[in-house]
Structure formats: C-alpha cells, structure tokens
C-alpha cells in the first residue's frame, strides 16, 4: 500500500512496480514487524537462557534496521523480566551502575538467582510432601448432674477425649 499523490488515498501497488527505495523500506517494515512479534512477552516459565537468546535476536534485528538508538541493553533486559524477578531487579538496580554493568555479568548473576529459585521450589515441594496434618476430635456430651442445679434444669457440658 502506498499513498497516491493525486488522490491522497492508499492504493495497492504490485511489488514488481515498486522503486528500489520503496522495496527497501517495505523490507525494513517487515523486519520491524517480526522484531515486534519477537518482543511479545513469553510465559513466566521462560528461563534466563531462553529469554536472553530471544533478547539477543531482538537487539540484532534492531541493529540491522539501524533503529537501535538505546545502548543500555542491561536496563532493557531487566525491564523485560517477569514480575517474579522484580525483587532481584530492584536489588541489582540499587547495587550496580547499570550504565557500566556488562550484559554478560548481568546474565551470570541472574542465572545464579534462577538456580536459587529452582532449589527453593524443590525444597518447598519436598517440605509440603513431608508435612502431614494432625487433627484431634473432641466429643461434647451433655450430662445431668445430681446436685442442686439439676432441679433448676441446668446442664453442664463435659468434654471427653
């Protein structure tokens, strides 16, 4: 689709009739669409390795489109992490200078934290399996007593275990 200069409306032009600069722009548009598609969030179960691989593909695509004006990939990667990583992201932001933090160092740090999260998940699962509930039953019966309160119709509860 291209804008017709005479009618100011979009008209469909066959690819063969496009000029070289229009073909190049169309190619860049398609690459940009694919980059945006790749940038869509994945499941929360995505590992740091797979997330980093996806992130690198996006950065590489942006470089090829000459659209990569931001050089702070560390901050961009941290922002793309799922919500369960928010505490770690905050700790890294407070402890490190993100402008000078190498991306490889960040990924190593996050991989260690990922292993800790996995170990905590395994530990909590085995703890839940080991814990068994114990419940006591109490039986309440009403008995009449043979004292003066009997004559008044009062009864007292006795708990038997």
From TrEMBL:
The organism's place on the tree of life at top rank: Eukaryota
Protein name (database record): UBN2 domain-containing protein
